[in-house]
């Protein structure tokens, strides 16, 4: 049940205050949590991976990169999951775990990184939802009247309405099933239409289109998109919702995510690239050909699924705000409802403004992976595990963890530079509030 209010806060010896949560914890089965994770992996973002990952990397780099990134991501997430009850304390937030292991400064740094990560993901979802809405309109009327910034504004309003109605992550409940249906619809449509186009098209060019320095930067940027595809940056917050035994159940959820959960993503990503080669659009449904109503249905379901998926990645911010201001109890109580309208609405309004200002979806994937997913999921996870378990680890295990820390630190720096360069280039090509 939910916890909050009063003064039940825990304070570690180093001065890190850990507030009880106003949201529900320990109520969900491992299967529901697995669907939360799988919803994130197979969100409408998958409609971009053919263009943002496969095109810059080609067949060999793309396939090997996706498989390796999945294996590394499973390993890193398992490390975090196994630390959930470290020291006899259940750490229901990423920053709580970092604060327990390192102290107050790490608590603040981790929360800052996580906030940036989730803000960027949320902004990307609003861009994605707006792009899907515009694509659905364009199927019937390609007159340029409904521009992308308008669609992004509509998407932001719908996301805010959904956030107001769903108080916390566990309350998604049946909406996860609805999201799965939406996912099935747009993935099957994109898959079938891509295969049909591929079978009826002449030979495609699969050569990586960039050359020289530009190729290096796009390759590094695509590597950031690889890790973005698999990781939430909020595993402890998701694990907090799972029933006991939390570690065992979370591992079940992770194995589901990284086996069965990856099949739809792989199918549509590879099929899209096979059908269109290096001409694949960054939003796959802009490449496919088929009946207007079918394409419209795919885009509408992608729009609606993005609204639901965004709620998952916004939930840590909602939890922080609700806990900070003591918003607990009945969801429809006047105080609680008005708080969600004002605060969540304001938060998503700012997300929407940034999304409309810089609507470069692929660039947002790269930048999010670079500046937050790499540090949170790989660097911090490996070092936290090393710090917590170093007296029980062999020399080879310690060496492996440090190798990961150093490698992903260098990758994070390189990917950040590459992503900022991509955004700078696109910002010169397109005006602010671009209709792309």
TrEMBL record:
Keyword Membrane: yes
Pfam families hit by this protein: Aa_trans
Highest taxon of source: Eukaryota
Residues of the Amino acid transporter transmembrane domain: 27-420
Any Gene Ontology CC annotation: plasma membrane
Transmembrane segments: 29-47, 59-83, 115-136, 148-169, 175-195, 254-276, 296-321, 341-361, 367-388, 400-424
Bilayer topology term: Multi-pass membrane protein
Compartment list: Cell membrane; Endomembrane system
InterPro entries associated with the record: AA_transpt_TM (IPR013057)
One of the protein's GO biological processes: auxin-activated signaling pathway
Keywords (A to Z) from UniProt: Amino-acid transport, Auxin signaling pathway, Cell membrane, Membrane, Symport, Transmembrane, Transmembrane helix, Transport
UniProt entry tagged with the keyword Iron: no
GO terms of molecular function: L-amino acid transmembrane transporter activity; symporter activity
Protein family according to the UniProt entry: Belongs to the amino acid/polyamine transporter 2 family. Amino acid/auxin permease (AAAP) (TC 2.A.18.1) subfamily.
Function summary: Carrier protein involved in proton-driven auxin influx. Mediates the formation of auxin gradient from developing leaves (site of auxin biosynthesis) to tips by contributing to the loading of auxin in vascular tissues and facilitating acropetal (base to tip) auxin transport within inner tissues of the root apex, and basipetal (tip to base) auxin transport within outer tissues of the root apex. May be involved in lateral roots and nodules formation.
Protein name in the entry: Putative amino acid transporter, transmembrane domain-containing protein
Species of origin: Medicago truncatula
